[in-house]
What we know:
13 strands, 6 helices, three-stranded parallel sheet, 230 residues
Amino acid sequence: MSSSIPGHALPGGGPRSFPVARVSRATLAANALAAREGGAERYATALLQADAWGHGADSARAVLDELQLTPAEDDAPADTAEVLSPASFFGLPGAPTGATPALRLTGTVLSVKDLRAGEGVSYGFAFRAPADTRIALVTGGYAQGVVRELGGAVDVAIAGHRHSIVGRVAMDVCVVDIGDAAVRRGDEALFLGDPAAGEPSLADWVRVTGLHPGELVTTVGLRASRQETP
């Protein structure tokens, strides 16, 4: 069964106008099981804070209970094999090899338009096209955790192809340079996925912003429309 924090849709049944954070319970379980097989018998209580770092505390606690992991003392080090850390459980940058991100963040293409060489987009025309191109307006902005510093610095993936965010990230949307790619209104844009599959990753966001992985993923999980998947 899946649960969600309701998002929004455009009038007339158009594309969703709110980005979606999908949290995989199966991935949480796989990450925790791998840690248990590696010697973890307890979990760091910090991983349940802030609604389990934006992943959903009820679901996270259920996974831990199913695997019979018990909470560690608050002062227990979280970077030992005996204690499941938030990075290992959620699959964040710095986790042991094999931990998979449990949260995927996607937006939706709201519109596509041509952009001629020299024309600008975003606040103050922060981006001006060096050559004729096409751009897509995508749901997802700093109000949902796609922080401003990511503009001009990271990619999204649409139909498996990477495209750069350009200009300044707005409150609820951002602009993506799609060139001549066959991108249409309603297409899904992946902000955060699995780096092992070559998808955009949280590590890129950490590198650009200098923020802690937990801070970034928690903001996304709490502010986007969250859905739990099996």
